[in-house]
């Protein structure tokens, strides 16, 4: 009788450990995937203040820094007077 109880106890414990291991495994793939693809990088158009996706935006490099624009028009505006749109200290 005692042996049976002991055996049962061991079984229960073993089952608990296995189950725990399964849960941890289940958690892992999710965190590895990290869910959605990384959000596209965005930047603020210094001319109109609009948030633009850097991948699709017009780009100008000014004083070693990249600036992004929603349209060719804003890009041209910036290129005419960059100092007007660049905040001091940037
Ligand atoms: Zn713009």
Give every kind of bound small molecule, once each. Answer: zinc ion
For the secondary structure, the number of strands is 4
The percentage of residues in β strands lies in 15-25%
Distance between the termini: 80 Å
Helicity level? 40-55%
Strand ordering within the main sheet: 1-2
Q: Specify the number of helices.
A: 3
- Estimate the global geometry from the Cα principal axes: rod-shaped
Low-confidence stretches: none
Helix-strand category: alpha+beta
As for the number of domains, it is: 1
In N-to-C order, the SSE pattern is: HEEEEHH
Biggest β-sheet, characterized?
2 strands, antiparallel
What Rg do the Cα atoms give?
29 Å
Quaternary structure: single chain
Mean pLDDT: 80
Which labels suit this protein?
50% helix, 90 residues, single chain, two-stranded antiparallel sheet, 3 helices, alpha+beta
Describe the structure.
The chain is of the alpha+beta class and 90 residues long. The protein has one domain (2-21, 42-85). It contains three helices and four strands; from the N terminus they run H-E-E-E-E-H-H. The longest helix is centred in the N-terminal third of the chain and has 32 residues, at 2-33. The relative contact order is 0.10. It binds zinc ion.
């Amino acid at each position: 009788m005692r042996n049976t109880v002991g055996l049962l106890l061991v079984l229960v414990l073993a089952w608990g450990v296995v189950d725990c291991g399964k849960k941890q495994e289940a958690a892992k793939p999710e965190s590895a995937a990290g869910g959605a693809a990384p959000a596209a990088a965005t930047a603020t158009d210094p001319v109109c203040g609009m948030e633009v996706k850097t991948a699709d935006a017009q780009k100008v490099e000014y004083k070693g820094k990249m600036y992004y624009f929603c349209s060719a028009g804003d890009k041209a505006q910036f290129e005419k007077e960059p100092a007007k749109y660049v905040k001091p200290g940037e």
